[in-house]
């Protein structure tokens, strides 16, 4: 349309210009990385808070 290449071809050409990804140093989706790290941190903090609460009320 209007003399332009299809979006798939333009994306493929742009992707071909990128350098190859380094092994172990790449997380492809930034927001997914943020959510993943947030969930891990949240779980660790929740477990620590639960441990402190159990130590305070002395439930064995």
From TrEMBL:
Organism: Sphaerisporangium corydalis
Spans through the membrane: 34-57
Sorted UniProt keywords: Membrane, Transmembrane, Transmembrane helix
Name recorded for this polypeptide: Small hydrophobic protein
